[in-house]
Amino acid sequence: MNKIFPIWVLLCMPMLSLQASPLAFSAWGFSLDLPEEYELIDGDLQNTFSFQSSAGAFLDMKVDVSGVSLETLSETVRKQLKNEGETEIFDYRGRKAFIIELNFIIGGEGITGYGLGFELEKKGDAVPLLLALAYNKVEAGDMTFLHTSALDSIAPVYAARLYPGAMTDYSFPRGEFKTVPLAGGEGSALFHENDAAAAQYVIDREDLVLSRYASSPLWKEAWQRFYRVVYRDSFDRIKHATFILERRWNVPTLDNRKLADRALRWVQTFTYERDLEGSDFVNLVTAATEGRGDCDSRSLLWAVILRQANIPSAIMVSREHSHAMGLADVTDAENGDNARFPFADKKWLVAETTAKIGIGLIEESMKDPRRWLGVELE
Length: 378
Known about the structure:
The structure is a single chain. The chain is α+β, with helices and mostly antiparallel strands. 28% of the residues lie in helices and 26% in strands. Strands 1-4-5-6-10-9-8-7 form an 8-stranded antiparallel sheet, with helices on both faces. A 5-stranded antiparallel sheet has the order 15-16-14-13-17.
């Protein structure tokens, strides 16, 4: 397939066999966390990067340092590609961005997909721009969920690493703040009016991506990415809620282990709920406000609460046990080390979120660490 950047010269390279996620481009301050099937295939690895998925989806990225405006860049793309799709400028975290629907023909082949343009961190007197185009041949079928997942994984600036992706932010504008009671009578917190719907959209989309790896040798990496994506999307959405909870629980000040245990006791009160027809994952906004969710939702919510309180946290999941638990890097002076999971150069204290037991306790049948997969969330 011909590359669709006729306005730039890419330095073609042999297949690098480099998995694409997660990647940080420190020179420009952006990062991305692509689905595992994407591989870096060409580019100069300085200003141009091109990825291809095993399904025939492409992602081409270009850093523009010419000094043109974002509006000019979007118009250049439209003209050079003779694109018939619409383009719209929007605000993403206080910076200009644009979204473009790709619909054009190159080399006699119909191309479809989406693109994003971002303002990056200022370099001297100039503001570099990042252009990312995700596309496929029309004849290859609908790959919208792959394109949106790939584009949504881009964090154009460091502060966006823990903020919803631009595709989701565009499709689900956050809206006005509203005050919503937290589960279990733990006060009320501010949420944006569209946060729950947006968070559930991300989960349902990423479940489609994850389902592609059921029989893949990359299933572990795909699971880890799924939770990273949900964590990133949810972090800011529940930020005020976690602040309210910590303020209620942490006066007088508790040590990290006791605070982790207090948060654990809260999620243990939730109603156990599974969606056997959907993604089987209740979004964290709904979990926090309605007090319901399965082990995945509870463990991830618990991990976010700890992280917001500056307590290192992670989760672990098991395909064999169909279960998830929380992990915290805390000492346990009162009860000894109890159940700990060795992962990422630490021995994490285990937290069972669906049974009313203390932190550091685990069922005997689930103690084998070889049956668990650790997930770092950042």
